[in-house]
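step=predict obj=ATP synthase subunit a n=288
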Amino acid sequence: MPAKTPGTGRHDHQETALSSLATVLPLASDEGGSTFHAPSIADFFPPPILFEGTIFEFNRIQFVRLVAAVVLVIVFVTIARRAKLVPGRSQNLIEMGLDFVRVNVAEEILGKERAKKHVAVLTTMFFAILAFNITSIIPGLNIAGTALIGLPVLLAAWAYVRYLSAGVSEHGLGGFLKASLFPPGVPWYMYVLLTPIEFLTVFVIRPATLAIRLMANMVAGHLMLVLCFSATQYFLVDSALAMKPFGVLTFVAGFAMTLFEAFVAALQAYIFVVLTAVYISLSVEHEH
């Protein structure tokens, strides 16, 4: 019996897997040998641009975040410096956004008096998340700054510290823990079951779901956009003549997904600040 060459089994297994993938994705090749490149998770881990292998490593997603942050600061500073009693279009648009967060989020959930302490944080969160989200549809950037877990975790940690500090400030540390972990009006023996659940809810699930929800929505949106426009390029440029009309359909789908992604970018910013306001409200209430 001939000796088995080392690594041959793994090589054969890889060839089998690639053959299966080609069968599942019939659009992967055409007569000219061109390929359709489907979106993948690798899009969210681009190669470094600067300082590779160091703690200062800088890649495309960090560049997108930097651009969004700088543009956001420039817009608000410019509008603030040129503010007029009778606002122009730009000032009016910004003021509408500020009023929306103040009235429909902060005051609606926290009440007018409590909202005064938190409206600045909630407004900053809303516009920051919106700016980082909307880069997913900006030509040349084409990915949300929140599509990688680091930034959503940072934003969730900010909300986490905010609602914990609000609760401790209102009740004191002992009072906050008691109000959070031992709901009133419950038989004492039920605390054996309820207290661990309340602990997980307050200290783990709330911040985790804030981060995961934000990231997951932006990841899904990016993958759908890349899929639609990659398919459009394939059908219009690389495919056989009979398949080119499908490029029109995928382009229309991509355009519709772009509009939907803009809506999701704003919706996720809104949901994030609404939940943050709700968590602050729950932490300062004397009875749950």
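step=describe
Confidence is low (pLDDT under 50) at residues 1-11, 13-33.
step=end
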